[in-house]
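quick one before i forget lol
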Amino acid sequence: MNEKDTTKLPLTSDTTKEHGSGTGSEETITEPGTDQPQVEVKKIVDQPPDGGYGWVCVACCFLVNAHTWGINSSYGIFLAYYLDNNYYPNASSLGFAFVGGLSISQALLISPLATYITRVYGTRTTLLLGVFFETVALIGASFTHQIWQLFLSQGVCFGFGMGFLFVGSVGIVPQWFTTKRSLANGIATAGSGLGGMMYSLATDAMIDNLGVEWAFRILGILACAVNVVCAVLIKDRNKAVGASQLAFDYRLFKRPEFLLILGWGFFSMMGYITLLFSLPNYAVSIRLSAQQGSIIGALLNLGQGLGRPVVGVFSDNAGRINLAGACTFVGGLFCFVIWIFAKSFSVLIFFAIAVGTVSGTFWTTIAPVGAEVVGLKELPSALSILWVFLVVPTTFSEPIALQLRQNAGDVYLHAQIYCGLMYVAAAGCMLFLRAWKIGQIEQLAAERGERSNDISAASADPALTRTVSAASKRSKNKLWKRLFLWKKV
């Protein structure tokens, strides 16, 4: 009598242990091909709590964004003051533009190191490092007397601080939510808009009453106090979701959908930085006062603060990729049909609020869209690469805009056209990403015998975190049809 060899799968305590603060669902795996009783292995699939302590993390991320990106948004007020008062002798307008670009580009450039520190030492260490660099930068900027000192303080050092805080916190909110992910992320990112509004007005008042030096010092003290509290309260779920936390995963470059995300980010930042830093000075160029310019900059940030949660709500309902692409296109459209013709204070107020609701859509939706495309596990690595990729557009966007200014007539006309075209190009990248996603869903639905229009069922499948670009080519709708096919994605 011949006996068949049977292999039993071991049961370990690790396979049934629940991770993190979320709940888990069990997957049963059996071994086929034997006549012996099959051994079941139960594996816990992490399910985020979709709330709970996650709302504390949302509040903390809101405040971190307000005291990093929000404070950085006030640079438009500093820039207008520097240009009008010759604050640093022999400094050019191009040099001042590079300071604003450096503060953002260095925040993104430091992201691989911040990701590595998060993986080795934890999220809290990364956040506290950010607090240290940002505080030193703002206090140090108050003692500068030459433009190169401003480069190092308000440019490079502040960028490092903002980068550590941003990278340490940007992936936290998606880990705590599923169905409310875009709403929660929209609330968290709204901090940069509301913080920018608050600190734009406050910075203008502090410069007028206390001088530039004390404006920097007060900002540094406030940022330090708030960010330290947030760093202590924020909790990540990296172990629960199995986040890879690789600083640079080159395999992502083989995925066309990831390249489309890079294109979306590149062109979005070329337009966004131009708007953020040029709008207060544009107000001055059409003979409005510096105070009115600061109000316009503040209203742009107010629009971001009010619009980002709304974008998050509709993103969860209409599809994250759909809304991200639509809002990006609308941002470019507003530049062409409103900004170019905004020659009065009232029209400029309307434009600042309207474009503010959609101009920062990239920051509102990048984490949820990234999770849709690459999955939560690879999201930190994908974001780390993305931040480095955005160093170039964030560094050179505002210098390009200033160089496009004319000496007479519509001073900012060429810069306005350039800004609008960048948003339209970014929307084009999202259109093709949307087509890829529809093809992926159709292929997965076909493979499982599901209806091709059952988006919600297909989107809940963990297999969506893997690319099926080759299989998508065989889906029932060709690329050109998928570009304009309505699906919730």
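fyi The CA atoms of residues 218 and 363 lie 27 Å apart.
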